[in-house]
Specification:
With 151 residues, the protein is mainly alpha-helical. It is built from 6 helices and 3 strands; from the N terminus they run H-H-H-H-E-E-H-H-E. It is globular and about 50 Å long.
Length: 151
């Protein structure tokens, strides 16, 4: 399955939507605090989330306000993964497999690339605001969602 197909898969759609809601919530919080984040910084954070999920230990700096916001997003997404469960053919439930999770992260990374217009771009964040912002709660907080995903 590739990143285009996954966006149409009803098992993965809630996961992708939840990841994007959390990205939007982070971007909104940062913006309200006067912190400017661009799409490439968010994409870099997703890359670190993917590497962490695959067993790597990427450096997560947190010295500046922007770095702290991105480190928070990194941690939030890793915790979020545990809330998504997959079910095998025998009905056993377990956390979403790493392969499925990293495919979701890659899909979002591809989406950022598609909507970004160049260095310093906020095109992806604008897309999220227009697409998800209209459907999310007024506070911008992402609800906690649990779903079953086919492995």
């Amino acid at each position: 399955m590739n990143t285009t197909d996954i966006m149409k898969d009803p098992f993965f759609t809630p996961i992708l939507f939840e990841i994007e809601r959390r990205i939007l919530a982070c971007a909104r919080t940062a913006k309200s605090a006067g912190i400017d984040m661009n799409d490439s910084q968010i994409r870099s954070t997703l890359n670190k989330v993917r590497k962490s999920s695959e067993g790597g230990k990427p450096q997560i700096p947190d010295t500046s306000p922007r770095e702290k916001a991105l480190a928070c997003l990194h941690g939030d997404l890793l915790k979020m993964r545990a809330g998504f469960m997959s079910e095998d053919s025998e009905g056993n439930r377990e956390p979403l497999p790493t392969k499925a999770w990293t495919l979701c992260i890659r899909t979002i990374e591809d989406s950022i690339q598609r909507y970004s217009t160049g260095p310093g771009s906020r095109g992806y964040q604008d897309f999220l605001e227009n697409f998800i912002g209209k459907h999310s709660s007024k506070s911008g907080e992402a609800p906690r969602i649990k779903t079953s995903v086919a492995s």
